[in-house]
Amino acid sequence: METDKENQLTSLNIDLKTDTPLNPKFLIEILLLNPYKLCSWLIGEQLPIKSAYFSFCRPEFFETHHYLFGNRIFYESDRNGLDFDISVITQPIIRRHKDVPPFLKSWSSILFLNPYSYPYTRRVRQKLLSNKVETGFPVFKQMARSLSISHQNLWRKLNKEGTSYQRIKDQLRHDMAIHFLSRAELNITEVAVNVGYADERHFYRMFKKWTGMSPGKYRQLLRP
């Protein structure tokens, strides 16, 4: 928590504290998203992020950060953390024990969805998540029809939000791949199939393009 000159609490923080620098960047993202999304779920609404801080430089797909963390993002910072207005601590917890099982079941989709920012990006992601990813994604015109919008208009909407249908599909596969690799009972081939890659070699190439490392190397980072 931060205070002003009169020792009044002004903001609440979620910070990552480690003895060694964290790497790669997506590990930092997930470690910040987990407690943030959990707190949002507990109160039944998205906590508005005042500022986000990352120790790494701005990534190539930085618009995904705006989608997840808001517009005030500072890179090459001396900390990895999220800041919130202090008023969030007055929010009551509305969840009960019976809400936990369905929450855990849908955790991967909750983790990477921002319900208020970038509405068309959100709608496309939700529609993609409602299908079985392993069977493949619909073509762009099919997606537009399912959203009751022309494909030209959907293209303009996504372009205005700084993204494209292909980027949304790639980012969703990236997010789901990270989620499935954290499950020790799945081998790499099964993870590839679960995110829509029948060819395991193609999955290896894409994962390395996304993260700079192989799926196996990433999985090693997850082990204690």
Question: Would you write up a description of this structure?
Answer:
This protein has 224 residues and is of the alpha+beta class. It folds into two domains: 8-90, no CATH class; 118-218, Homeodomain-like (Arc Repressor Mutant, subunit A). It is built from eleven helices and five strands; from the N terminus they run ββαβαββααααααααα. The chain has helices at residues 25-43, 63-69, 100-105, 107-111, 119-129, 140-146, 151-160, 165-181, 188-194, 200-211, 215-222, and strands spanning 2-3, 9-15, 49-53, 73-74, 81-85. A five-stranded mixed sheet has the order 1-2-5-3-4. The longest helix is centred in the N-terminal third of the chain and has 19 residues, at 25-43. The chain starts with a strand and ends with a helix. Residues 3-7 have low confidence and may be disordered.
Offer a few descriptive terms.
224 residues; alpha+beta; Arc Repressor Mutant, subunit A; 2 domains; 5-stranded mixed β-sheet; 49% helix
Short description:
This protein has eleven helices and five strands; from the N terminus they run ββαβαββααααααααα.
